[in-house]
Amino acid sequence: MPRLHVISASTRPTSAGRPLAAWIAELAAGREEFDTTLIDLGEVNLPFFDEPEHPSEGRYIHRHTKEWSATVAAADCFVFVMPMYNGGFTAPLKNAIDYLQKEWQGKPVGLISYSAGSSGGAPAVEMIQPVLRRVGLRSARRSLSIPGIEERLAGRYGNFVATAELAAQAAAVLDEVALLAAAERTAV
Ligand SMILES: Cc1cc2nc3c(=O)[nH]c(=O)nc-3n(C[C@H](O)[C@H](O)[C@H](O)COP(=O)(O)O)c2cc1C
Known about the structure:
This protein is of the alpha/beta class. It has one domain (3-187): Rossmann fold. 38% of the residues lie in helices and 19% in strands. It has six helices and five strands. The chain has helices at 18-29, 41-44, 63-73, 91-98, 122-134, 164-187, and strands spanning 3-8, 35-40, 77-83, 108-114, 138-146. A five-stranded parallel β-sheet has the order 2-1-3-4-5, sandwiched between helices. Strand 3 (77-83), helix 4 and strand 4 form a beta-alpha-beta unit. The radius of gyration is 16 Å and the shape is globular. The two termini are 14 Å apart.
């Protein structure tokens, strides 16, 4: 069974996306195709990239890098639940990607973005694509962008309030990640 890591990309203690990531992880965990783990970049708490060698060497001196490497290596596929800041994807997510290389390579990723405004972070999904390609992550063609994230929470730090339509759209992203992960397994 492919191991799916749902990565909640906001590092803010008051992240509005954290409940969304929890909901996505719950949806994934309810399916038979995945062994799902929720990873919170806020908890991972990586400093700015500080390894002396290029990540492609895989020779890490810092404990935080070794732990992040083990976390990412343990996954077969990912869903990034990512906020949009200032029209793009966020610095902590770029930093977390930059830390590693072979650990990402060839693995499928589904993208679920969100924002306060009406775009739902779709520009951030576009912006991250070349970065994903550079580290060999294989982006699912379907993505989901959720506008007005703050209005979708039950209370200030409450659960994500889903709709049937959003559940169907999230399921479509998970379907594609599952297909890509299965294809990857067959190819190995
Ligand atoms: C630094 C910063 C920049 C933001 N820029 C945008 C933006 O360009 N468009 C938008 O719709 N919302 C923007 N927002 C609002 C966020 O999308 C919204 O606060 C969301 O909750 C952030 O995700 P998080 O709470 O999980 O960190 C921005 C928020 C922050 C903190």
